[in-house]
Amino acid sequence: MAQATFHFPRGFLWGAATAAHQVEGNNTNNNWWAWEQEEGRIIQGQKSGLACDWWNGRWREDFDRAAEAGHNAHRMSVEWSRIQPAPDRWDENALDRYREMMRGLTERGMTPLVTLHHFSDPLWLSEMGGWENEKVVDYFIPFVNKVVEALREYVNLWVTINEPNVLVTNAYVMGVFPPGKTDLGAMYRATVNMIRAHALAYQAIHKIQPTARVGLAFQYRGLLPSKTWSPLDRFAAGMQSRLFNDLFPEALVSGVLRLPVVSRHIPEARGTQDFLGINYYTQEYVAFNLLKAGEMFGQRSFHPQAELSETGFIANDPEGLFKALKWGMRFELPILITENGVEDSQDSLRPRYIIQHLHQVWKAVNFNFPVKGYFHWSLVDNFEWERGWTQRFGLWGLDVETQTRLTRPSADLFAEICRENGISSEMVARYAPALFESMFPN
Ligand code: GAL
Description:
Layout: E1 5-7, E2 13-17, H1 20-23, H2 31-37, H3 54-68, E3 73-77, H4 80-83, H5 92-107, E4 111-117, H6 123-127, H7 136-151, E5 157-162, H8 164-172, H9 184-208, E6 213-219, E7 222-225, H10 231-254, E8 256-258, E9 263-265, E10 276-279, E11 283-288, E12 298-301, H11 319-328, E13 335-339, H12 350-366, E14 371-377, E15 396-399, E16 404-407, H13 409-420, E17 422-424, H14 425-431, H15 436-439
Parallel strand pairs: 2-3, 2-14, 3-4, 4-5, 5-6, 6-10, 7-11, 10-13, 13-14
Antiparallel strand pairs: 1-17, 8-9, 11-12, 15-16
């Protein structure tokens, strides 16, 4: 039997990613909590409730698990509505609690990567029109200053905004995130405001902490033509990919937001990334469809032969991660994989998914792509937005009623990878024997 180990570079960051609203519980003062109370918004009327009960202190046991499993980093977010419960009020106790969590990470030997905005907005902000209102920038910057001042002792790595491309698409085109609109004008306004908010946050963070490394986390999704010979499919796929994948990061290089018909100059955005954060889950195929005007005339679907996740949300397409990293190379920045994972309550696909995706990362690293770390989504099952609790992304499972954690084989596999800083043939033989032949041919 062939024996080998795919090694990763020294100092590679290994960890999991989480987000405040999905794990803390009782975030009653934000727009997602309000959204959950509306009928028909969340699958089966499910609610975040106590989530993973982190706000009451269960972060400790989950950080213990991560540290024991060899993670040397963790990506988490802070909840704006806790820190600034009203426009004219800061909650110092909330900031203290986050300081405690950061200390908790560093004491356990994990480097914190903190996301300042991960989908949820304070209620007072959404009542003012949220990201559509240009005033959001004037509120975001003081919030960023407050958090960075409070956490700078522990944190050097910052993500300003998580997946701005998913947020504007889901909130203003698909209507599945609050405020539930299908309005391209609103999408445009929110996009401009997010780019400005990021740019000014980048400058604000560096002013407080000159050594900080600041970026965003973009979701990169391969959007390929269904029929490569069809110019219409190529047109629709190209348009969707430009808007979803390229628009934001290119604006942060050039200072220009280039839409199909208009360009908007945002000069303060130029050169405002120290690293590129990539979230990768899957890729899709796009067919031209006249009825999909709001989606650039593209109907998306997975490859007919693709292996799908439990609820059909993700196709296991590891080569798409290599393509995402290759795409990321054009920005000439260090790259962090800020999210990657699959929903799988039975953990029947996840071990393979992890190995196959990390194999692609290893390949990229060996082509000298500057990939510096990998954060698995997620540490423990958590509240999956409009999909509620129906999707289980955790290395550890969660019984929401009893708050009991269940160790999945993937948690052990990922622990071995973190400790080894590599993937060995022996791990593949134990956790995903079906992959052995193709990964380690005799
Ligand atoms: C991402 C998001 C995460 C998580 C994940 C899995 O788009 O940033 O918060 O929900 O998808 O659905």
